[in-house]
């Protein structure tokens, strides 16, 4: 058995709710399951394609794919008495997964990617049915982009208002001009 030592390098980690077992992603492409009471490796699973993020949710361990230039996927591993090597794959992003988080109640998994997309899964649905989710049409934007667009919209609104006032003024001038001409002709 291998004990956790300072010589090991890890890129991500997660623990079960009772803090009995920990799951660490090593730089050599393996998920190592540790007994957190003794800090001894109980199991290790080699992961094809690389894992950059992990998240634990009631008998499920989720791993986010981190291979550059490849679609970002989520692997769902069953955790019964120990981590199972078979995983169900879900391709959800066009780029590597950069963040995996669970909602506070553990019912939803949030996955963010380098491509700017966000995927939200129902954890019960993923555990029971294994249904694949469709790609989202939404694109994430930064707050500065939103502020810039908001400023541009308000500038355009003020320009429209200014042009409307100018048009009204021009129409009044023309009406006054026509009234004067009618008055001249009628006199």
Give an overview in words.
With 187 residues, this protein is of the alpha+beta class. It has helices spanning 123-128, 143-186, and strands spanning 10-15, 21-26, 30-35, 40-46, 51-57, 60-65, 72-79, 83-93, 97-102, 108-113, 118-122. A four-stranded antiparallel sheet has the order 1-2-3-4, with no helix packed on it. Strands 5-6-7-8 form a four-stranded antiparallel sheet. A hairpin with a 6-residue loop joins strand 6 (60-65) and strand 7 (72-79). Mean pLDDT is 82; it is low at 125-131.
C-alpha end-to-end distance: 114 Å
Low-confidence spans: 125-131
The radius of gyration is: 30 Å
User: Total number of β-strand segments?
Assistant: 11
Q: What is the count of helical runs?
A: 2
Main sheet: strands, sense, barrel: 4 strands, antiparallel
User: Structural class of the secondary structure composition?
Assistant: alpha+beta
The portion of residues assigned to helices is 25-40%
Shape: rod-shaped
What fraction of residues sit in β-strands? Answer: 35-45%
Strand adjacency order, main sheet: 1-2-3-4
The topology string of helices and strands comes to EEEEEEEEEEEHH
Oligomer kind: single chain
Averaged pLDDT: 82
Question: Brief overview, please?
Answer:
The chain has 187 residues and is α+β, with helices and mostly antiparallel strands.
């Amino acid at each position: 058995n291998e004990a956790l030592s300072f010589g090991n390098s890890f890129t991500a980690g997660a623990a079960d709710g009772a803090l009995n077992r920990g799951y660490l992603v090593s730089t050599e492409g393996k998920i190592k399951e540790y007994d957190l009471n003794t800090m001894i490796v109980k199991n290790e699973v080699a992961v094809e394609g690389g894992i950059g993020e992990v998240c634990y949710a009631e008998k499920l361990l989720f791993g986010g794919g981190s291979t550059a230039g490849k679609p970002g996927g989520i692997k769902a591993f069953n955790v019964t008495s120990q981590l199972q090597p078979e995983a169900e794959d879900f391709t959800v992003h066009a780029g590597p997964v950069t963040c995996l988080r669970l909602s506070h109640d553990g019912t939803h998994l949030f996955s963010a990617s380098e491509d700017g997309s966000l995927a939200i899964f129902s954890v019960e649905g993923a555990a029971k049915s294994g249904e694949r989710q469709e790609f989202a049409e939404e694109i994430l934007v930064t707050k500065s982009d939103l502020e810039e667009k908001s400023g541009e919209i308000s500038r355009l609104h003020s320009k429209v208002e200014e042009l409307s006032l100018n048009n009204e003024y021009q129409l009044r001038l023309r009406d006054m001009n026509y009234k004067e001409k009618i008055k001249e002709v009628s006199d």
